[in-house]
Amino acid sequence: VKSETNVIILGAGLSGALLAFRWKSLYPQLTIQLLERNTAPIREKTWSFHEADVAPEIWHWLAPLASATWDGYEVCFPGRPTRTLSRSRYASIKGEHLLEKCELDELIRWGAEVRSCSRTSVELYDGTTLSADLVIDARGEATLPSGGFQKFLGQNITLKEPHQLKRPLLMDATVTQSDGFRFFYLLPWDSHSLLVEDTYYSNTSDIDPALIRKEIEGYIAKKGWVVEKIQSEEKGVLPLPTTIEEQSQNPSEPLSIGMRGALYHPVTSYSVPWAATIAHHLTPTGAHQELEQLKRRLNKNHPFYFLLNRMLFEGAEPAERWKVLARFYGLPEPLIQRFYGGKTSFSDKVRIFAGKPPLPLNRALQVLLSNPRGKEALA
Ligand SMILES: Cc1cc2nc3c(=O)[nH]c(=O)nc-3n(C[C@H](O)[C@H](O)[C@H](O)COP(=O)(O)OP(=O)(O)OC[C@H]3O[C@@H](n4cnc5c(N)ncnc54)[C@H](O)[C@@H]3O)c2cc1C
């Protein structure tokens, strides 16, 4: 029996929306349904990415989905001049804009919480059973063993006066270091409004929103800015893995994409480049084999990034962690670009470890030698 729906995508978040957006325009005859447990689009996330993270043909359709794009970004570390990196544009999609720009309204079934699923069927908590030729699981974060956490709270703020920022400040690490490596992240949406986010690369996952709100208030005051309105807030605790169990896709389970399919950068937690590349290359008829191949290609450098996470969380004292990042952001811009896009080359890996080490050499070596996949990580 042919299913009524060709494709069911579980979750109308980033990876599900991008795939539906592409397939809707490339295969207009395909019937697609997105099942989303929430009753409204995700508002409390901002998805950022660099132009160089993706191939030019992907940037071509992805950039118009962005709420804002800038001609690069800046980073700032103690004792060093602010560095502008402008070889590649930087872009951000506001949570509330994604589904609107993808025009997916008619395809989404809101309030549909998935209880169980297979590659061709789905059961919802309300008892409904649905079937499709292909079920894709894009339900977001799956729990992975982690070496540490990237945790943050950000506020979208409108100021009384212009902030004068020209481009995003990806890392302002000149703030007091606490709870690991700490920095502020600023995204200037327009002359008066911006996202101000306080971020920690921490050993623990706990977050104290009241305390961070106070920190943001203090940071804004120091800049001499006066808040007119806090528009919205976002918060995240993202596990930074040091390993992922290699699992080949179980043929009875749906194909998993996005964070659920471990398709993201292990050090930055950015998943836009992975989600967009999958959406660009996957086809409804060849999805099984294509996804396996794409995963292998996109996650090729994961062992190296796991090693970096271990170096960061096991090799560096929390208070000294910023030095690792300060040194990294002193490296040539093309290397930094390839790093963000998950395309670190062999010579980049050598370059990242070469020179005067930011960590005590014996601790770094301990981490390297105790890594069961050390050789693979450096290949
Ligand atoms: C606050 C925040 C900011 C981030 N910023 C960036 C960034 O700037 N750049 C970047 O690349 N990455 C960023 N990330 C990391 C990552 O890219 C995002 O988490 C991204 O949204 C992951 O995409 P996804 O499609 O895997 O999951 P999601 O976008 O989380 O989508 C999953 C969807 O599935 C739904 N769902 C879950 N369970 C069920 C169920 N049982 N039934 C039905 N629906 C279900 C959820 O409600 C959700 O809508 C951020 C993460 C957070 C938390």
Describe the protein's architecture and organization.
The chain is an alpha/beta fold. It has helices at 14-26, 56-62, 95-102, 209-223, 272-281, 287-298, 302-315, 321-328, 333-340, 346-353, 361-370, 374-378; strands at residues 5-10, 32-36, 46-50, 68-70, 73-76, 83-85, 90-94, 108-110, 114-117, 121-124, 129-137, 146-159, 169-172, 181-188, 193-202, 227-241, 255-256. It is built from 12 helices and 17 strands. Strands 1, 2, 8, 9, 10, 11 and 17 form a 7-stranded mixed β-sheet that branches. Strands 6-5-13-14-15-12-16 form a 7-stranded mixed β-sheet. A hairpin with a 4-residue loop joins strand 14 and strand 15. Helix 7 (302-315) packs across helix 11 (361-370). The chain is globular, with a radius of gyration of 21 Å. Bound molecules: flavin-adenine dinucleotide. Flavin-adenine dinucleotide binds next to helix 1, strand 2, strand 3 and strand 16.
> Strand tally, please?
17
Helical fraction equals: 25-40%
Which regions contain 5 or more consecutive residues with pLDDT less than 50? Answer: none
**Distance between termini?**
48 Å
Radius of gyration: 21 Å
| Largest sheet entry | 7 strands, mixed
Total DSSP helices: 12
Q: What's the helix-strand series?
A: EHEEHEEEEHEEEEEEEEHEEHHHHHHHH
Small molecules held by this entry: flavin-adenine dinucleotide
